Each structure stands twice: as C-alpha cells, then as structure tokens.
Amino acid sequence: MTAWIAFSVNGRPVDVEVDPMRRLADVLRDDLGLTGTKIGCDAGDCGACTVRLDGRQVAACLVPVAQAAGTEVRTVEGLADDGSGSGGGHERGGGAGLKPHEFADLAALQRAFLEAGAAQCGICTPGMLMAADDLLERTHQPTEAQVRDALGGVLCRCTGYRKILEAVAVVAAAPDAAAAEVASAGPSLPASGGAVGARLVKVDGIGRVDGTAAFGADERPEGCLGVRAVRSPHARARFTIGDLEALHARHPGLVKVLTAADVPGQNRYGIYPTGKDQPVLAEGEVRHRGEAVCALVAEEAVLDAIDDAEIPIAWQPLDPIADIDAATAPGAPLLHAHAPGNVLVRGRLARGDVDRGFAATGARAAVEVETTFVEHAYIEPEAGWARRVGDRIEVTVSTQAPYMDRDEVALILGIGPGQVRIVPTACGGGFGGKLDLGVHGLVAVAAWLLDRPARAVWTRPESMAASPKRHPARIRASAAADSDGRLTAFRFHGDFDTGAYASWGPTVANRVPVHAMGPYAVPAVLATSRAIHTNNPPAGAFRGFGVPQAAIAHEALMDDLAAQLGIDGLEIRLRNALRAGSMTATGQVLRASAGLAACLEALRPAWARLRAEVEAWNVAAAGRRDPARRGVGIGAMWYGIGNTSIANPSTIEIGLDRAAVVTLYSGAVDIGQGASTILVQIAADALGVPAGTVRLVSGDTDRTKDAGKSSASRQTFVSGNAARLAGEALRRDLLRLAEVGQDASIELADGRATFREPGRSAVTIDLAELPEIGVGSAGDRAVLAATGTFDPATTPLDTDGQGVPYETYAFGAQLAVVEVDVELGTTRVLRIVAAHDVGRAINPTQVEGQIHGGIAQGLGLALMEAYVPGRTENLHDYLIPTVGDVPEIEIILVEDPQPSGPYGAKGVGEPALVPTAPAILGAIHAATGARITTLPATPDRVLAAIRASAS
Amino acid sequence: MASYLRPAELPAALEALAQGVAEGRPRVVVAGATDHYPARVGRVTDEDVLDVSALAAFRGIREVEGGWWIAAGATWTQLAEQPLPACFDGLQRAAVAIGGLQIQNRATIAGNVCNASPAADGVPNLLVLDAVVELASVRGARRVPVGEFVVGNRATVRAPDELVTGLFVPDPAAAIGAAAGAPGRKDEFVASSTFLKLGARAYLVISIAMVAAVVVRDAGRRIASARLAVGACSPVARRLPTLEAELAGRTLEPGIGDLVRADHLTALSPIDDVRGTAGYRRASALVLVRRALEELAS
Fold it and tell me: Which pLDDT value is given to residue A190?
C-alpha cells in the first residue's frame, strides 16, 4: 500500500506518495533526490544517514517515512542555508551534476570541516555534520566528551576522527567568530610556487561537505534497471539452477536472470594476468559463502519483491576447507587445478648464513602470530551503474583502479579495452577493497546484453560477504642478536589464507618476505611465505598487503631481544635501523631518504617521559586497588612504495585551454586519501601557477591517461612525479612559445598568458588565437598539453628475493600508551605518538589525516576487528573503532627527502597503519606482562593471557 | 498487499491487532523501528504493521501512585534527560549506552524489552527495578513482571493480539517500607542503583556482559534489599537471588564486593561467541557484580 506523507525538508514542505514503511533515507534519496544523505548499512550501525528529525539526530534508515509525517527534517543539503540565508532547500541538493556551494556560502561547520581536513572520502561527512549540528544547537560550548557522545553514532573509516573533533571544537568554541573568520578569509590558497607544503583545502572537498559529491549509489539514470546478485549461503557447494519459467510468471517485471552462460566474454577475472580465476557468476560450483551464482535484472521495485528463496537453485553442499590446516592437509580437495596443494604462490627471500647468525649470538627470540580476516568496512558499499553506448560500455562506479577495471570489463564482455569507459564516482572509502571488481561485471553484462542502463548497490551484508579481506596470517618468526643488540639473523615463515580466489594474494606473498625482518639491517635472513586457498572469502589488498601482519611478529621479537639483553626498546631499534647507506635484505643499498633513525630520535623524549609517567601511575594505581595498569609500547616500520619489482607507471596530462584555464587530467583516483589535491599542488608548483587556479579532471578513462591504481601508497610518489613532469613540460612549452627564460613567472587570466622576467618587459600570448588540440577522447580541448610519465626504478627479484623491489621506502615509528583493566582484560588506548618519514609533506593536513586514519585502522586490527564469514556480516558484530576509541594522536613529521620523489615526497597511506598494532601490543605487554600474539586482542584473550603470564 | 496502520487511540490499535490475529496475519508492532529494520536488511517482507508511535497514551515517563510509569512510547533519550531518583541511575546509564544518539532518540524502553535480546541493556535494569509490564488487548489488560515477561532469546509472553502499553516501576524504598509494614517509613530508606556494561569498544557496542544493581539501605547503611541482575550471560538476563539474600542485612560499605563468589553466578549459562568466550563472560560478570556493589558502597 502507499499513502501520502507530508512533512518538511530543510524548511520546504514535501508531500510524497510512498509505502508508509519505506525508510526515510530511501525517500529522501530516491523520491526527493536528496542524495546527500548516505546509506552505509540500513541497520543503524554506521550513522551515515544521520539527519535531524524535529531537531534530534536520527538514523534515517530506521525511520518509517510515515513517522516523519508532520515533522521537520533537516539534511546536509539544508545546512548551508543557515549561514548564507540563500534559501534553496532541497532543489540544490542531491547527486550528480548539481553545483556545489561556493566556499563562503557554506555553514560554519562545513567550512570548519574543510579547513581541518575532517572530510576524507566524505561518505560519513553528512552524517557527522548533522550529528554535530544537533549538538551545537543544543549545547553551548560543549566539552570534548560531549562532542564524542554526540558523534558516537557515526562511524568514520578514514579520518581516525581526530580532525572531525578538531573541526567541531573550532565551531563549538566560538561559533559566530569562527564563522566570520573563515568566511572572510576564505580557504587558504597559496600563491604561485607555494603549493607544495601548504595546507591546501581538498580541491574536491566542497561536494563532500554539502552533499553534492556523487558516490557510487547516488546516480540512477532514466530507465535504469536494477541488478541483484543471488549469493551462495554455502562456503562450498555444487548447484544447479532450475527452470526459471515459474519465477518469471510470478514476477512479470523480471527482465532477466543472468547466469554464467550469459557472460559474453571470459567469465573469469582477477588481478594478475595469470590469476584470472574468479567467475562473474559461478559455474555450477561455489567456493566461498557470498559468491554470486546468478543475478536478477528488473526495475528496482520488482527486484524488491523477489525473495531469493523463490529462485530454483538446487544446492549440494560440500565440506568446506575452513582454514590453512585443512587446505594443506594430505588429500585435501583442490580449489583450483592450477594451485597444487592449494598453494597459490610462494614468496622467498634468502640472504647470508642464517644458521650461523643464530649460532653465535647474545640473544634469541621466537614468536608465533596468528591474525584473522579483517574487513575494509568502508562506509560506502560497492555501487555503480553501466550503460551501453553503441559498441562501447560505460561503467560509472566507485573504484580505486579505473584502468584495471577497464581491462577486466573488456575481458568479461569480450570487447577491446578501448570499448570500455570507466567513470569513477566519488569513492566512499577503499583501503584496497575497491581494487577488485565489485558491481562492475554484473552491471556491465546486464547493460551490454539488454541495452539499458543497469545499476547495482550492494547491501552491507552483501558487501561484507562478497568483497575481499585482509589475509589471515599464521607466522612463525625468530631473530637473533649479538650482545650489543645488533641483529645477526632473522627467520620468518608466513602462511596467508588467501581464500577462494587469487585476488591480490600474490602481492601479499611477494611483499611480505621483503618486509618480514622489519626496518632493520640484518645480515642473514630467510623469509618465506605461502598464499593458500581455502573456502573463505577471497583475501586481497588491504592497506599494507600483509606487512601489518608481519610487523606484529618482528616488533614482538625486537621487544623480546631488548628485554633479554637489557637494552631499551627504542635503543635496540635505533641500533638496527636501516639508514642511508644500509643494505636491505634484498641486497639493495639505500641511497637516501631512510629516516627511521630520525623518527626514533624524535620519539625519544616522549618515550622517556611517557614511560616515567606510566610507571608512577601504576604505583599509585596499585596503592588504591585500582585494577588498571598502563604501559607504553613502540613499533617501527618500513614500507616499499608502489608495486613490488614490477612496472608501475603513471601518466598524467595537463592542458591549457583558450580561456587560460589549466586542467590536470589525472587518472589517479582520490579515494579520500587526497591524491587529487596533492597532484594539483605538485602540478601547480611545477608549472608555476597558483594551485587554486588548476582545474581537475579525475579518473575518467576517456579523459585521462593511466595513472595506475590508488594502492601501495604510490599516488604521491609515482603519480606525483608524473604530475610534476607534466607540469614542468607544460611550463617548458609555454616558456619556449613565449621565448622567455626559464625563471619567468606565468600569469594566466582572461584567455591570455603573461610572462614576466626581471629586467625585461612582460610578454603576453593570446591563447584564444592558438589552434586547439584534443585531450583524451571525450571532447576536452586545449591549446597546449603536456604529459608526464613516471615509473619507479626497480629490478626483478631473483629466486632468493635479491634485487631492487622498490625505488623508495617510507619509514616510521609510533608509541602507544594503553590502559588495561587487568580484571576484565579491556584495553583502552590513551595516546599515540607517531613519527613518520614522508620525504616531504606535500600537504601536512592530509598527511596528518592519513596518519590518523591509519592509526585508527591499526588500533582496530590490534583490538577488535575479526571478520567471521556468516557471523559478522554487519557493522554491529564486526567492530571498527568509534570516535571514543581513537586517542589523542601527536604527529611528528620527519622529512628526509627522496631525491627522486616529487619535491622529495614518498607516500604515507599504508605506512601509518603498520606500526600501530605492534606498539599497542607492546604496550599491553608492558602494562601486564602478557604478550598477545593471536589477534585481535579482545578482552577475553587479554584476560586469558594475563592469567597465563601470572601463573 | 501489506497493510500499515498508525492509529492515534489505543482501542483502534487493539482492534487492529485482534483482527490481524483473526485473519491469520498477526501485525508486527513497530514503535521506534530501530530493531525492526536491522532484522530486515536485504530481505523481502510482506508484513502487516501496527505503528504505535502516534498513540497518545504511549507518551511520557511520570510518577504515579507507588512508583513510576514508563509509557510504551518513551524513548531512551527521554529517560536520560528526565530528572529521576537515584534508583533510576542504572537505567539512565543504560539509556546513553544503547546504540548512538540516533538510536537513543528513537528506540523505546518497552521495545527493548519486547525485542528480548539476551544482550538488551534495558532488561537487567528493569529486572532489578522489579518493573512490571502492562499489556492490553481487546480481551482486557494484564500485568506481568519483566522477569516473567521475557522467557527466552527473542521470546516473550506477549500474545500476538496484545500490546505492551508501558512499564510500571515500583518505588524500591516504598516497597521496603510497605514490606516492613510501615509505608510511612519510606523516607527512612534510600535506593541507589548502577549499571556496568562491558563491551569491546566505546560506542555502538553490544554488551559482552553487563550488571545492573539496585540497593535499598536505611540511614545506617544497612542493606534492606539488594537486587542484582546479569545480562548477556544467559538467554534471558538473570537475577542473583542467593547473593541478594546474603547481602540483605549487611552494611553497605567498601569491601562488600568481596562477598561475591563465583557460585553466586551459577544461574548464568553464558555461550562462546564472537564477543567473548563463555568462561570469560562468567569471569567478567563476577568482576562486574563486585564492582557494582563497590560503586554503590563508595
């Protein structure tokens, strides 16, 4: 049934005829076009859909629209009108193509979010803003605890919440003053040549705070069909799909049921050319729970009425291979013929005489570590749509890797890559999870076959069941050091559960041995790894590619060696730190930008102070029978930037048009990490124009060149170099055209380029008179265009893992202070101090944001995150840190420039996550004497370990 | 085709429930809907709904003869924001620990009881408050103590044609006075309460274990009545009668937690799940019970 429901949205009356039980979030988005309200879970777990209902924050996904009758609803689209009084209400808000506000028209809170860098991917931002708006209207000058309570219902996976708290605090402290100040000053816009190093506000930020940025689920083209996969409830089973006639008869609107036979090209995809093992739709057998076996295509209202149970699928469940042990047991069934023993791939690094290193030593330590599946839990589930345009397909989708997607879709449809256009939407978080195909295959097949636009939006449980995960690791490692604490040998073996399909398993298996011994100079190393297939979800890329798991082992060993030798934990790391001139275990000599020692030195004062404070605190706690104990831990890391030993190029194009507008055509997708802003800053300085004048076209494969994927912390270093080279090339071309010297300044305005040099009169070129050239294949025009290409200098690794796997490495170290309740086993992280060598911080706000976010994910990995297929497929059973879990974070940026980096920069996306869990686990050990090696360190495990260590 | 009703008056609501039962399509009752939708993510539904959110009789929390009345439509936020005596401290603490503010602003206390999750934060508190559930139907009204109302994991004694209209919370001090044969002596007794929730993160967390306590003492800190309940450690939250009996007559002073022994918790039947092992739940419940008493004694 439907009913007319009348209420008010952002001050304007609306009246909609809908199912009264339709969720308010759906009505806002689908019926009213207010797509600024985001949906992350439909279960009230994430708060992305937070709106204000009669002033109070509510989860719009949990409100029957009928209960909104007669109420006043405020959404993110209505926020800005407060400040500007410009009216507008909902006709401005929502989805693609609508014009974002001007900065000065934004509400104070929105401006504060932008200035603080409180919005990264932006998917949680509308919810955060509305929750904060509720608080600020209700509470005068709230305390930080009150702010946390108000925001406690909104999850953010990018920012680590610190900059959100900062932004709210700015407005809370002095709402009117802050508003006035920010409005008058505008966003900080550095002058020509001053972009690198400036805290430039995100170039794509306004759409993220005013709700206009279109994410994967925000567009629904006219006549669009919905596509819904039907997924296996079994981890391993054979199946047959029966006669569909009855289903079609019952649901006349059902356009098609796609099965494997409908895939026009190759029903196999996967990251590596040799690893295309994953079907778009399973062929008679499923290998993991959540695998798609068929897909329904129909108008979305028709889809909503079809129960999966109506589909005639005959299942024959088989005993699943549940874990590494089962997979490697003699006689275990094989998941794939090409993976004998279910071993997908092995990694190996061998250098020096390990046995001798272990024989003659001062101390030896050994550890076994076990980690579990970790879910990316980006707040935006996979979503997108496709349409066929003649003999081409266009896929508009939330992704980290448009060019890889293009090639995969081409194979699936059996067409050439040039016939595929990938248009990335705003990406509501990736962290590696959107490097694999999500909705792409199914919407592309549906649109291609039916010649109608087709759209899919995964539910949260579907996203969690079907998307790849962080590899569970089972690691055995040992290390030896001489009596001075200098490492003499290191041995490591890691088995990684790569799940049912290859995905990025080979990357993990190859990257881990290189990083296994940590950021230390070790003369003798034997590190091996295996990626092993099981009937678990595919494990793929997740921020760090196995290195975070390995770091838990090597840092536990360092703590143990230090304790045995009576050497301070920071000191032993310093003695072994890789430095400029050191040789790594792959035989690579680091020439420069190896700033671990500087990071450790920078932490030394805090290390001493915090440990003294904690010691005194513990004495006092014991005295008052307080069951809490505090401890300080330390973790160090290194991380090779970009692909391991394989080609990894980025090409960036930059154009100057007749209107004298510079456009950066960047195929590097900004997934919230800030690539777009960084690349604009770099290109602007390379060209010599103010960053605020550079327009950006991002991601679209018809309009940009291949800048690789947003992964492996590579966009600043690799694409940044490409942007620099493009900017420099365009500058050279311009200066040559104007016949001026290389130090001339460039001013671009009103269709003219003006060049000035000391002692010479200005030269002006009328750009409108120059002939136009095309940029890309989608009609972009320029009068001058230049490209830059950069590919890091690496060499293949030999069978002993020797070679140059990466051109440059990030280094870092963190301290964690924790408080453990020794009677309950609960752990609270009180403080993190993080020192990271980023080469050069192109944008310190964004670098800090990456570090905050990495730490939050490292904290989750350490303490709470465990994905169990079929059990934790939602965001209330699968826990990620909330605003109350991420402590105060002090950041020390070490800038040891990488000579080949753009302005010295390296990368920071993944590095920040790596040392956090080791530091937290070390701190728990310091506090309690218990060493947790099975993650996550949930209260039950911590309590058991405390009791075991006490007895 | 599913039907939806949102009456303003109770008789219409009861009539609709009765009719649904008669037609073989019992209506699903929805108030704040915060448990309704999460159970239906990605599922096709064909349900007749009775939305009770517009019922005038369902609003408010107020003092009544002998105690307080929490109407079925009262939300956790209303409970948290309303000034209430100390016997409600525990329930008010639960009120700000259930989901985020988005949930607290919509979810009802009565709905928490009707949803009957083993981890319902409201239930142990209502158990120790000796709260009584009031039900109405076209057949008449009845009152059932919370401890008898919730009978299992997601199971209550509510008949499909019945509606919970609210919860009556007797004044614990008055109850003691009455039991002592002197209702007028109510003022000699002080009731205090607390609630301790154990979870693996700061907000939006489902309890691993939780403890609610109400203690009524006289001016000399002698315990007239102690009631404790543990949640998330059995299909239904459990009171601890042996411990309660041992506490009666003792002085409420620091160190009282030491009285609590593991065998006081034998009624619990915790399970292993993703949030914790059964053994851990048992151990932590013991710690929480001790701490709850110590907190009330401090």
Answer: 85
Q: How confident is the model over A76-104, as pLDDT tens digits?
A: 999 986 433 333 333 333 344 456 788 88
CA proximity to A547, closest of A659, A713, A415: A713
Question: For residue A91, what pLDDT is reported?
Answer: 38
Model ipTM?
Answer: 0.97
Query: Closest Cα to residue A872, out of A505, A511, A374, A482?
Result: A374
Q: Residue type at B32?
A: G
Distance of CA A22 to the CA centre of its chain: 32
Mind telling me how many Å the CA of A401 is from chain B's nearest CA? 28
Confidence category of residue A186, pLDDT binned at 50, 70, 90:
low
Please answer yes or no on whether B202 and A56 come within 8 Å at the CB atom.
no
First to last CA, chain A: 65
Q: How confident is the model at residue B42 (pLDDT cuts 50, 70, 90)?
A: confident
Question: How far does A263 lie from chain B, in Å, by closest CA?
Answer: 25
Return the pLDDT at A462: 97
Structure tokens at A129: 């803003």
**Averaged confidence pLDDT in chain B:** 95
A153 and B203 within 8 Å at the Cβ level: the answer is yes
Nearest residue on chain B to A304, judged by CA atoms? B44
Residue of A67, A148, A153 lying closest to B99 (CB–CB): A153
Contacts of residue A51, defined as CB under 8 A and 6 or more positions apart, other chains included, come to: A24, A25, A28, A37, A57, A58, A60, A73, A74, A75, A76, A130
Residue A749 C-alpha from the chain's centroid: 37
Helices (H) and strands (E) in chain A, counts: 24, 33
Global pTM value: 0.97
- CB burial of residue A660 (10 Å; 0-12, 13-18, 19+): buried
Question: What tens digit of pLDDT does each residue of A229-238 get?
Answer: 999 999 999 9
**pLDDT value at residue A273:** 85
Residue of B nearest to A20 (CA): B4
Across the interface, do B200 and A863 touch by the CB < 8 Å criterion? yes
CA B156/CA B148 separation, integer angstroms: 8
Please report the pLDDT score of residue A183 as a whole number: 53
Give the list of residues 6+ apart from residue A101 with CB closer than 8 angstroms, or none: A80, A84, A92, A206, A210, A212
Do residues A496 and A282 touch, judged by C-beta distance below 8 A? no
What's the confidence (pLDDT) of residue A181?
59
pLDDT tens digits, residue range A351-395?
A: 999 999 999 779 999 999 999 999 999 999 999 999 999 999 999
**Cα A145 to the chain's mean position, in Å?**
28
Tokens linked to B22: 């008669």
Sign of CA dihedral A616, A617, A618, A624: positive
Quick one: pLDDT at residue A47? Answer: 98
* Inter-chain CB pairs, A–B, below 8 Å: 163
- With a cut of 60, say whether residue B157 has pLDDT above it: yes
Residues B281, B269: Cα–Cα separation, whole Å: 9
The string of DSSP letters for A374-430 reads: B----SS--EEEEEEETTEEEEEE--S-HHHHHHHHHHHHTS-GGGEEEEE-B-S--
Q: Do B37 and A825 touch (CB under 8 A)?
A: no
What is the arrangement of strands in the sheet containing A72-74, beginning at the earlier edge strand?
A12-18, A3-9, A72-74, A50-53, A56-59
Q: Let me know the angle formed at the C-alpha of A325 by A319 and A330, rounded to the nearest 5 degrees.
A: 75
| Alpha carbon of B40: minimum distance to chain A alpha carbons (Å) | 9
**Residue A94 pLDDT:** 38
- Could you report the per-residue pLDDT of A389-403, keeping only the tens digit for each? 999 999 999 999 999
Residue A901: what are its φ and ψ, rounded to 5°? -85, 160
Compute φ and ψ for A563, nearest 5 degrees. Answer: -65, -45
Q: What are the start-end ranges of the E strands in A21-65? A: 50-53, 56-59
